[in-house]
Amino acid sequence: MIVSKDEQTFRMPRWLTGSLSLMTLMCGGGGIFLIVVQGIDAISLMVAAVGFTLAVGTLDAIRTRVTLHGEEIIIVQGFRRRRLFRGHIDSVTWQKGTGVSLHLDDGMRVTLPDVGDSKARAASIRAWVERARRTE
């Protein structure tokens, strides 16, 4: 399958999602083990609650992505999907500590989710926006 330059997906690094998944499984398994061995008490409920919270966070981290697809950028974060058209993006900026921001033509600013190397991702998105301007 050949992917064009106008179609890229940025996700969390696999080692990070793998680590989160492993921690979730260990905590969830520990909670179940404690409930089976000790019964329901404050500690086993707390471990189970932490395992559940980790599971929700891990699922969100696995689903979080930024996709450049044709003429739109698709941002999936927090179980929500947002689409922005390439023509509405004025500029792409990156600052250490704040990540990648898109400045739109209506004056709004959209901060992208942190899914890896922000500086390289900003350069890729900036090039994607500029390719559309050159072809017009």
Task: Provide a brief overview of the structure.
By secondary structure, the protein is an alpha+beta fold.
Please tell me about this protein's structure.
- The chain is of the alpha+beta class and 136 residues long.
- Helices cover 48% and strands 28% of the residues.
- The chain has three helices and seven strands.
- It has helices spanning 14-38, 42-63, 118-135; strands at residues 7-11, 65-69, 72-77, 80-85, 89-95, 99-104, 109-111.
- The strands form two sheets. It has a four-stranded antiparallel sheet.
- Strand 2 (65-69) and strand 3 (72-77) form a beta hairpin.
- Helix 1 runs antiparallel to helix 2.
- The longest helix is centred in the N-terminal third of the chain and has 25 residues, at 14-38.
- The mean pLDDT is 85.
- What percent strand? 25-35%
Helix share, percent = 40-55%
Q: Structural class, from secondary structure content? A: alpha+beta
Distance between the termini: 28 Å
Largest sheet: 4 strands, antiparallel
**Global mean pLDDT:** 85
In spatial order, strands of the major sheet run: 1-2-3-4
> Stretches where pLDDT falls below 50 for ≥5 residues?
none
Number of strands: 7
Q: Strand-and-helix sequence, N→C?
A: EHHEEEEEEH
User: How would the global form be characterised?
Assistant: elongated
Radius of gyration (CA) equals 20 Å
Secondary structure tally, helices: 3
